[in-house]
Amino acid sequence: MLDVRGLKKVYEGSGRRVEAVRDLTFTVDAGELVCLVGPSGCGKTTLLKCMGGLLTPTSGEVLLGGRPVSGPPPGMAFVFQEYGRSLFPWMRVRDNVELPLKQKKLSPSRRRELVADALESVGLTDAAGAYPWQLSGGMQQRVAIARALAYEPDVLLMDEPFAAVDAQTRADLEDLVRGLWQQRGITILFVTHDIDEAVYLGERVLILSTSPTVVQEQLKVDLPAERDQLHTRVAPRFAELRTHVYEQIQAAKRGKAADLEDVKDMKADAPPTH
Amino acid sequence: MKNLALRLFFVLALPLILVIAWWFASDSSTDVYWPPLHTILTTFPDVWTGERLSDDVLPSLLRLLAGYTAAAVVGVALGTVIGSYRRVRAVCEPVLEFLRAVPPPVLVPVIMLFAGIGDTMKIAVIASGCVWPILLNTVEGVRAVDSVMSETARSYGITGSARLRHVVLRSASPQIFAGLRQALSIGIILMVISEMFAASNGLGFTIVQFQRNFAIPDMWTGILLLGLLGFVLSVLFRLVERQVLGWYHGLRDTSRRSS
């Protein structure tokens, strides 16, 4: 579904040259939920913007369904971290969700249907007439998710979407995303700096190195498909996986891949252990 | 109810005190130039009769409306273009700063040379003075569109005219309205000034005529009328602004309360 090949992004300006992303190659299959995790400042947002067609990579390419991405593709929806700046404060919740659909030239009845359905999926049917700033942070991010869902994307890109909400709201939103993913079968690429979140949510975790970024490791998360905050997070396997990711990120910060014998069996190419 | 009464009291208290003070201070005045307030008030209905309203006040207001509207259209349109492109802005900014620094009244004689002494000249004077605050505020507003919002718009395919209408202009609307508000008071000033130079009707013309003919109480009624007019226009403006910028005031109150 989503192919990233040899992606490289160098920012140049005022005599400074910053290599944010060096060489990234990975694929995301249709219907997969992949989490990207890496140390802070490792170019996660740069990568996501290149994938969303918001930035042009210096070299390499991004393919969506086999076709190269040169601008924001219609089959892709974005959820940004800064919900307060991503929703339009002059529009009511309903209109925020509907605006991209108008651009898609859908009929009014179809638009109403999609908006109502999307708001229901995130549990905000009652808030349709409110302005975003009248809602709590968690609810605003739900509106942003509803807007993305109504857009009916093949791929949903989420850029640290829950970094700015409190822990309890965050847990609810994580379950919401997993639930939506299971119901709707969309492909989700979820960027986060939170290791627990990455392991809890993902079917696969891509661990990135520090900037200039390369893929440090791909890890298959062999937790059961049905996950819940209470039990999954205390499962021994969850602890093993998060420890492994944590070690890899620490190693990434030190500038080399961790070579740990006892976690070799967790590599992506290893068969699932359950 | 009690709250409303209290608010009404605070709104009306100072104007009332000032009127009363004026009333008693001027009550026994024999100075020709400072007639008692009661003389001015009794003259008022005689001066601003139906005929004068239609022959002087209405043309003034229509010219103000025409000049102000032209300035708003040109200011917002040009401001959007200049604000959207960094290169255009770099080229235009020094010129704009210069033009804006020229006091609009000095343009009256110049514009008279090109546009004669008719309505066109007066509308041009009003428009040329009103356009600057609108233009410069629009440039600032358009330039300050939040980067996350523009990226959101782009990623959802909101481009071209839809982006302009739903994102850029809405996001810049608080600044655009700030410019429109400044322009309104400039417009009223220029409406009067343009009629003082070469005119055969209008509020400014009438007031100058009264002064030249030593009809001093009549002149004072004209000044009162101008004050009232400015007041009514600003109230109307506030009503429109509340409609259009309701979201902005709500947003601001919310963020003020939470910080």
The CATH architecture of chain B is Orthogonal Bundle
CATH fold group of chain B: MetI-like fold
Overall pLDDT of chain B, averaged?
91
Oligomer: heterodimer
Strand content of chain B: under 5%
Strand content of chain A: 15-25%
Explain what this protein looks like in three dimensions.
The complex is a heterodimer of chains A (274) and B (259). Chain A is an alpha/beta fold and 274 residues long. Helices cover 36% and strands 24% of the residues of chain A. Chain A has a domain at 1-70 and 191-274: Rossmann fold. In chain A, helix 3 packs parallel to helix 5 and helix 7 crosses helix 9 (236-254). Chain B has one domain: MetI-like fold (Orthogonal Bundle), CATH 1.10.3720. Helices cover 85% and strands 0% of the residues of chain B. Chain A: One of its GO terms (molecular function) is ATP binding. Chain A: This is ABC transporter ATP-binding protein. Chain A: Keywords: ATP-binding, Nucleotide-binding, Transport.
What tags apply to this protein structure?
heterodimer, A: 274 residues, 10 strands, globular, disordered C terminus, B: 259 residues, mainly alpha, MetI-like fold, 11 helices
